[in-house]
Write a structure and sequence with these properties.
This protein is mainly α. Helix content is about 60%, strand content about 0%. The protein is built from twelve helices and two strands; from the N terminus they run H-H-H-H-H-H-H-E-H-H-H-H-H-E. It has a two-stranded antiparallel sheet with strand order 1-2. Helix 5 crosses helix 7 and helix 11 runs antiparallel to helix 12. The longest helix is centred in the middle third of the chain and has 22 residues. The chain is elongated. The two termini are about 15 Å apart. About 35% of the residues are buried.
């Protein structure tokens, strides 16, 4: 079966599974994980809603991987964000991938059963979907799961932008009030700095130093684990370079849509959110 055929086959599978109502709960600690799942809403997912499918499948696989490997949930999510597949995570722990697939199937099967009982899908739809679970789970085991940023990462990105914004204004010898319309006009922070005889790389270095200090302070205060802090610090050069060269970096909900100086919003919790879409 060629790549195109595989994609089409999985897409057709996704359309059928999208009739289901998924919502497996993922505990903060893998050792507390159970194979039970609860519907996330009272209405069935729309046909073709691959985002909902991805969330359901990712949750099931994370719970199953936690059960089999005994890894903390946070460690599994970090590995997924590093680009590893479920199969790679399982292999590193010398665990049984078949056991993970079996556990994930139990979770999803429970969801289907609950959906039928709740009236959010028909028994006929369930009978069509259940035989497809093995194929869908098996394919997802070897595919990268695209996770959205965690609360911590969103906070870090917001803080990065604020510090870059202020560092660029200072290095360029202009006020923040003067900097805003230039950004709104489509210029990047790097372009603005260069136009004002400032070095973008020096700005990135300054911002990296400030952010590293801020992250380490949060680690010391117990607001971040050392692992989380190390991950954030390691990602700084690439993320800051991207923000420096991004057009309209303020144009997002996280960054206030460009209204005034960007301010970081403190994370509601240090537990990452579980929402993922397999790159099928």
């Amino acid at each position: 079966m060629n790549t195109r055929t595989k994609v089409i086959s999985l897409s057709m599978t996704a359309i059928l599974i999208a009739l289901l109502m998924f919502g497996a709960s993922v505990p903060a600690n893998a050792q507390d994980a159970t194979a039970t799942a609860t519907p996330a809403a009272t209405q069935p997912a729309a046909k073709g809603d691959r985002g909902a499918i991805g969330v359901a499948l990712a949750r099931a696989l994370v719970v199953a991987t936690a059960q089999v490997t005994k890894l903390p949930n946070e460690q599994i999510l970090n590995a997924l964000r590093d680009g590893k597949t479920i199969n790679q995570i399982v292999a590193e722990q010398k665990a049984d991938p078949a056991a993970v697939q079996a556990a994930a199937k139990i979770i999803l099967t429970t969801d289907i059963t609950n959906a039928v009982a709740a009236g959010t899908m028909t028994q006929k739809q369930a009978d069509k979907a259940l035989p497809l679970l093995d194929k869908l789970i098996s394919a997802a085991m070897d595919r990268k799961i695209m996770l959205p940023p965690s609360e911590i990462e969103r906070y870090a990105t917001s803080l990065e932008l604020r510090i870059l914004f202020e560092a660029t204004a200072k290095a360029s010898n202009i006020s923040r009030r003067e900097l805003l319309p230039l950004l709104r006009g489509g210029q990047t922070l790097a372009a603005i700095a260069t136009a004002h005889n400032a070095d973008p790389m020096a700005i990135i270095t300054t911002a990296t130093d400030q952010l590293t200090k801020a992250i380490n302070q949060r680690v010391t205060a117990g607001k971040l684990s050392k692992e989380e802090g190390d991950r954030l610090i390691a990602a700084l050069p690439a993320q800051l370079t991207e923000l420096m060269n991004k057009v309209n970096p303020l144009d997002s909900k996280t960054h206030g849509k460009g209204k005034g100086t960007p301010q970081p919003t403190a994370p509601a919790a240090d537990q990452p959110t579980i929402a993922a879409t397999p790159a099928l």
